[in-house]
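Quarterly update from the structural biology core.
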Amino acid sequence: MRKMRTMMAPMKTPLLLFLVWVLQYAVCRDVSLPPGTLYRVAGFPLSLPCAVSGYEGARSQDFEWFLYRDDSGGRQMGVVSTRDKGFPYAPFQARVRNGEVRVERDSGDKCRLVIQRLRAEDQGKYECYTPSTDTTYQGNYSATVPVKVIPDTLQISYTRSLTGQPVPEGAELTLTCSAGIQSEQLTHLSITFGKRSGGEGSASGAGGEVSTVREIISVDKLLGVVPGHLYKKRYDGGEITLEKRNGEGELGVYVMKMRAVQPDDTGSYFCEASQWIRDPDRTWQRIAQRMLDIGNLTVQQLAESLSITSSPRGEITLQVGSPFILTCEVLGLPSDVNSGLLVQWMKRGSVSSDVAGSGGVEVEVARMSPGGVVSWGDDLSRASGGSMEKVAEGRYSLKLFSARPLDSGVYRCVVTVYAGRQNPGPSTPATLTQRSEGVTVNLKSKDVRVAAVAQLPRGPLLKRGMTITLICNATVTTTGPAQAQVQWLRWPIPERVIRRNQNPASDATPTDSPVEEKPRLVAALMYDGVAEIYANGSDVSVDRLSAGSYRLRVHAASMEDQGMYACHAQAWVQDPHGGWYNTGAKAESNAVTVYLYARAADLLLIPLVVGVSSALFVGIVIIATVTCCFMKRLAKQRAPK
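Predicted structure, tokenized:
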């Protein structure tokens, strides 16, 4: 053990010296600049970042910049310093004083040399030097990077400027910008179309304006088309496009199209061209940039010019069965904008209202799509009894060949405009929707009265499995041909409920309390003689016995078929053109209660079951008693004496 300790003692000193040397090296000063060579364009800014690390002393370090021009034979030239105002050499003194050449701090130990407008004579090797604040002089106190200044060859122009004259909403906008570069270095070109929109800004003082710059669409440095954030949805929908065409010489022609301008597109438009280069550290740098103002665009909103009128105006009164025509006219659409129109006729109110149009839900009567396809609302029978047509540009008519009482109400024409989109898709947002004034249509119908009486014919008691027969006598009193349409409905039989007063000594009064349930539709006989049977557990049939007598039969009835039955009758009359329509007049009959009694076989079944059960029970008791007594006696005989 002593020998090992003796051998390790001489080894400690070199190890400690090595650790001290590594520690000193790890914390020694290091100044860094981007790797070169860097290529920048004359007339545009140069920005060189410089950072120092591993230093001692104050957190805020000083920086001094030197330039070794290519034609100076290696002579050093002071550019700018953070600690000495008299540091710049004569060629840079004026430029430093006016701020064209300056040092901008990113932090205490990071800064950048900025030359606002680079000159050809600024080409050379730049050195960033940091005066020492360390106790010992060790490490790297400066770094250099070569900078080459290349000529400015970026060109940009436009074909036609915007005049500022109002453009109707939905019109197509086309902007053309030409740009190109001629450089011996491998540089890329990007093109951006943008817009500035001015607005009142409280931050800029009274009457001041704050300008908002929006990028619409670009061809980036890697030749990819990139829409602006606020225009991505329109770009995805094909509303905004950008394409490149070949121009004269080295210039490329870039064409931006906006398919349908919107009010928010009002503003000042510009085209921006940028030249990019990839530095040795693999980062892209913009080395040149030019912007051209194309002009101002003012979008005139469609709501300011569009108007919808319907005729005839006011109120009209017609006889039932007579035809009527309503006309819708769309005014104020720009003639040079191809817009898609969705035209709808809506109606509120019917003959069931005391005043036409005074209430009820507004329903669609008919519509014509932008493609000219006509469809009808919930009343599909109108498809054969009317028409909707485009009679002229901006004029649409609704014709009903034979008016019915249910056609009364307030009609309005509703027009939805897709400005600049003649064939909009299902997800295309509408530009504007406007409604016309209402046209009140009153129809004088015939005096129609309806009566309905339900009865259960006399006969034997109804039992399960028999046929239930019910008669509905429905009469329609009016002039001209008429028919009754009869429906049979069934409710459950109400249970008797005992209502008790709060005083316990008072007598209870039994009352019939009907069950509040929705009736179940059993069957119907339509005005044209067609029978309709609805969901029912038994076999059901309906027929017409005579002119005003209608019969419902439930065959092989089950207990679920008993209940309270009633019939509802509606009056249908014939118009002068031979068509049948529902007058809206209706009547409800009295309720007939149907009970089903048990059959004789069902009554005999109960005593039979009871008798058999009793006999089995008595037999089991007797056998158990005898067996028990016998076993006890046998046990006594075997017992030892």
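The chain has a mean pLDDT of 82.
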